[in-house]
Amino acid sequence: MSKAMLLETERLYLREMTAEDAGDLYALNADPEVIQFTGDGPFETVAQARAFLEAYDHYRRYGFGRWAVIRKEDGAFLGWCGLKYTPELDEYDIGFRIFRWFWNQGYTTEAARACLQLGFGRFGMPAIVGRARRENLASIRVLEKVGLSYVGPLDFEGEEGVLYRKMKVP
User: What pLDDT score does 5 carry?
Assistant: First the structure.
């Protein structure tokens, strides 16, 4: 594994995203089905995606962030998965976004499970939350499969959402 590689699972590597991932990130967010429930819009250009990645400082500030999900077998960029700290809420959350043609193959669950283990293990996070729009059943299913429990409803950028949480097991 190179220095940028952070995690390895049976089928995946997770690594820091870099400016070289701008084309993939642009393409990922350009698919309306992929971003349908996220509240995010597409990047207008690859250059805008690159600028986002160049300004992304979570790795430097916290030591973790949203990581590129790479398939071991062929080096394909599947999307991203990872952890985010929100200082205003003093809260850690897990998020993921995968190209549609990789859905329903277990990649998101595999990556999310590894991220939770890293968050609780290496980073000592006391709890990790996940948020989804109520109608995003696939994301809710991933949160449940990796052990997060339903906490309650929430406002998801003006839409009905759900909040899930997993506490660190002592």
Answer: 64
Where residue 54 falls among pLDDT bands split at 50, 70, 90? very high
Closest CA to 105 of 131, 136, 79: 79
Two tokens, residue 26: 């642009």
Q: Could you tell me what percent of the chain has a pLDDT over 90?
A: 84
Contacts of 61 (CB under 8 A, 6+ apart): none
Task: Report the chain's mean pLDDT, rounded to a whole number.
Answer: 93
Does residue 160 contact residue 100 with C-beta atoms inside 8 Å? no
The amino acid present at 149, given as its one-letter code, is: S
Reference 95, options 131, 120, 43, 146; nearest CA is: 131
Inter-residue contact 94 to 107 (CB < 8 Å): no
Q: Are the CB atoms for 118 and 149 separated by under 8 Å? A: no
